[in-house]
UniProtKB/TrEMBL annotation, chains A, B:
A Pfam match: MarR_2
Domain HTH marR-type residues, every copy: 8-144
Taxonomic lineage of the native organism: Bacteria, Bacillati, Bacillota, Bacilli, Bacillales
Record-linked SUPFAM superfamilies: Winged helix' DNA-binding domain
Superkingdom as given in the UniProt entry: Bacteria
Protein name, per record: MarR family transcriptional regulator
PROSITE patterns per the UniProt record, alphabetical: HTH_MARR_2 (PS50995)
Coiled coil: none
InterPro entries cross-referenced by the UniProt entry: ArsR-like_HTH (IPR011991), HTH_MarR-typ (IPR000835), WH-like_DNA-bd_sf (IPR036388), WH_DNA-bd_sf (IPR036390)
Alphabetic keyword roster: DNA-binding, Transcription, Transcription regulation
Length: 159, 159
């Protein structure tokens, strides 16, 4: 093993470990945020998912969150009651009911993340364009890996 | 605004957004994993925290997780029962009771993360040393930001 490989192997270990630590911090952050906003952790996560996906069906939300159909129905009821979403019949397929995120309320959620967003942007502005492109691409790739691992875990559960 | 600034501003937006998406995937991943291992989300998170910190007191764990003292006591009872931790009197200060992670059981948890670790390492090995150092440093910095934001949210709660 060349000296370069040894260095890289230590770096890989370090990076894998750090990514795990960052992931854990994200979990803690979301729980802290849910407590601040006054919604449950699961409800906040679902509101965030809807914010990202746009209108989807209850079945699709159940698949992404891994919650049972019954739990998702109860969840949508809660989110509807607190004004984060509304149910609407799909204009193209009248049999489908879509869960529509309500933009104003979603903006309110986003505003709570402002402090984190600002700090993130400040950190990023210390990097040059080439570096930002590299990091951007890395985060995109690692997110794809997470998606794949999540899908694997969810399909194991379905079996 | 120069064209360079515009490019960077779009990159900053994109990166901030991608980091949030990655964070959400981490939350989903941990929930899926908890379900697979058969422990609650909170319990798995706490076991992971202990794995990272090493022996700490119930008070310290309560501070990191944001759980009440009562909840933490119940949590430690559960983790002790499932063999993830044991309580031990501190050798230096007999009044302190430390929660000790049990290495074998923690290794079992880690083994469940193997698939993710392998995929992460494979991704990282596509980068050269200089790039890995940059990404490593970025992840470290963004984790510090998360820590700061978490502390802020937790101290708001205490007030």
């Amino acid at each position: 093993m060349s000296s370069d490989n040894r260095v890289n192997s230590a770096l890989l270990e370090s990076l894998t470990h750090r990514l795990q630590r960052y992931g854990m911090r994200s979990v803690l952050f979301q729980q802290n945020m849910a407590q601040k906003i006054g919604v449950s952790h699961t409800d906040l996560k679902s509101a965030e998912i809807l914010n990202e996906t746009g209108p989807i069906t209850a079945g699709e939300l159940s698949k992404i969150t891994g919650l049972s159909t019954g739990s998702v129905t109860a969840l949508i009821n809660r989110l509807e009651k607190s004004g984060y979403v509304k149910r609407e019949r799909d204009q193209l397929d009248g049999r489908k009911v879509m869960i529509m995120p309500i933009p104003e309320r979603q903006e309110q959620i986003k505003s709570h993340y402002q402090s984190l967003s600002m700090a993130t942007k400040e950190l990023c502005s210390a990097y040059n364009e080439q570096e930002l492109i590299l990091i951007n691409q890395f985060v995109e790739e690692i997110t794809k890996i997470m998606d794949k691992e999540n899908n694997k875990l969810m399909s194991e559960r379905e079996r």
